[in-house]
Design brief:
By secondary structure, the chain is an alpha/beta fold. The protein is about 30% helix and about 25% strand. The strands form four sheets. The chain has a seven-stranded parallel sheet, with helices on both faces.
């Protein structure tokens, strides 16, 4: 049997699909259509209903492979890897996509080694090479300064992890039909050497720009850390989060969790305001999918204007305080 089809790994939490599962369908649908093959998703977990799985069908999957079992409630890489290897051996998908999340970054490399497959991690773009039909996997390299396109022509399946928020989730179409295949769990797939004892989140840094609807980001054009106060003020007025360019972070003007770009976070807010950011390629790749982009820069040829919906050319030290003052006035009017 030859390898065929595009598969996406659909992560769940407490029996519910995570948003990244639908983002992967956006990527997978494009690839499957180019190859003229089925797009499938697979779910490994517990208490995931057929109704929940059907959301993947409505969002573009042709088939969903669903494996539920209480022993799969917790993510344990050895167990999930055993399940995935068994699926690869039985169904032979040509391409497998996962999210560059803790789960995806852990289990996909584990599987790739075991099935002797090629894997490209942390991709920002995926495409199909017309001449060969190979998967083209683009990811940042050399600290995010260049983008490398990689393909694996001699091994199958071709595997890649994709940055969350690097594309929009696939829209669901009510009534779209597909096939849900419920799989029985083989107890022999349990590894037994590891078990989940506890789960703890990192303490001390509560920055979350990835889920923010509005981001106000500052760059090298602010000239010094004290001037980030203007950025914080605008973000506070708008109820948004503060982002930053790599330059601003490397100069210790703001901490790394605020960094947007290939070497930082990929974000897709409703509104992204870039202040004093020139628009290096590694930064643009991390925010260009925002719904609306406003840029303020004194250089009319700055690359940030290439992706902006509104571009303001001028001295940010004159413009930003005036904008903040006007925004504050409008907010006060609404509160009254």
């Amino acid at each position: 049997m030859s390898y065929n089809g595009v598969w996406t790994m659909a992560e769940t939490n407490d029996g519910k699909l995570r948003t990244v599962a639908f983002e992967l369908l956006t990527r997978g649908r494009k690839l499957a259509d180019k190859l003229d093959v089925d797009l499938s998703s697979f779910i490994i977990g517990n208490n995931v209903s057929k109704e929940e799985a059907n959301k993947l069908i409505e969002a573009g999957a042709d088939k969903v492979y669903l494996m539920n079992d209480p022993r799969l409630e917790d993510f344990i890489v050895e167990n999930y890897s055993n399940v995935m290897v068994s699926l690869v051996e039985e169904y032979k998908p040509e391409i497998i996509l996962g999210a560059a999340t803790t789960q995806g970054r852990t289990v996909l490399p584990h599987v790739a080694i075991r099935v002797n497959a090629g894997l490209t991690a942390d991709c920002t773009e995926l495409d199909i090479e017309e001449e060969s039909g190979n998967l083209l996997q683009t990811r940042p390299a050399i600290g995010g300064n260049i983008l490398a396109t990689i393909h694996t022509p001699k091994h199958r399946p071709q595997m890649a992890t994709v940055r969350p928020k690097s594309t929009s989730p696939a829209e669901r179409v009510s009534g779209r039909e597909g096939e849900i295949i419920e799989l029985d769990f083989d107890p022999e797939l349990l590894d037994g050497r590891a078990k989940r004892v506890d789960f703890r989140t990192t303490e001390g840094e509560d920055v979350n720009i990835v889920d923010a609807d509005t981001i106000v980001a500052g760059g090298k054009g602010l000239k010094k850390s004290d001037n980030f106060e203007m950025i914080w003020k605008m973000a506070d007025i708008l109820g948004g989060a503060v982002g930053a360019s790599r330059d601003a972070v490397e100069m210790d003007w703001i901490s790394y969790p605020h960094q947007v770009g290939l070497s930082g976070k990929t974000v897709t807010p409703h509104l992204y305001i870039a202040i004093g950011i020139s628009g290096a390629i590694q930064h643009l790749a991390g925010m260009k999918t925002a719904d609306h982009i406003i840029a303020i820069n004194e250089d009319p040829d700055a690359d940030i204007f290439k992706v902006s919906d509104i571009g303001i050319v001028g001295n940010l030290f004159d413009l930003v305080p005036m904008i903040n003052e006007r925004l504050q006035e409008e907010v006060e009017k609404v509160e009254v």
